[in-house]
Amino acid sequence: MRWCWQRGGRVGLFLWNRSLGLQLHSNWATWGPTAVQRCTAKTLAPPRLPVYKRRTMSQSHTFSRRHFITTSAAALGFPTIIPASALGKDGRPAPSERITVGAIGWGTIAGDWTPSFLSNPKCQVIAVADPMKEYNHYGYDGKEAGGREAGKRSIDEAYSKAAHKPTKGCTAYADFREMMDKEDLDAVQISTPDHWHAYMAVYAARKGKHIYGQKPLALNIAEGRLMAD
Fold first, then answer.
1. How far is residue 52 CA from its own chain's centroid?
2. Mean pLDDT across 164-187
3. pLDDT for position 226
4. How far apart are the C-alpha atoms of 44 and 27, rounded to whole Å?
5. Fewest Cβ atoms closer than 10 Å to its Cβ: which of 115, 140, 210, 216?
6. Does residue 38 come out as left (phi exceeding 0), alpha (psi in the -120 to 50 range) or beta?
7. Are 148 and 156 in contact (CB under 8 A)?
8. What is the H or E stretch that residue 212 is in?
């Protein structure tokens, strides 16, 4: 079987036989209109092909089995350096054993309470969600920055200071639902305006997350029952 590639009134022939390791090709030859066709030897007489030689395995593959085994053995025998922090030997549990936390809302309350999670060696705050990108009038004196970018910056700075090296392990989201869908979270901290508390708590509970919620957890009995159920 030959494949004919026609372009601008010219055709080229290409034949590849993987089992024999043969590769044939022809010079350009004039042939019909521009198109892509599949043709057989009966429908298209091939032009004169160059003389070809059968390639042996040693000619087509310079990477020998002995070379492969030698290289692999050297790679496996080379010692792998694993930092102590990855094994939980730096005073903190291993990353796989830490409680991953996502902060929902970043304003005055989150700025006051999130450091409790940041300083806890058993926790790792890995994400923050806030519809506001950044706003500089949070805090009790109106001089603190809020919003998801401010939260991400605060979290990264806290972990960088503790690790004595730059660390960027927090991801910022505009939508808390997207954060819960994309991040592998064990728990969430809800620090939003009061009327959002119950809705976000129920949403997180249905996602199987543990919840740390600021007061009031609900605005009425109906919201409270919905959360409890």
1. 48
2. 96
3. 93
4. 15
5. 140
6. beta
7. no
8. strand 210-213
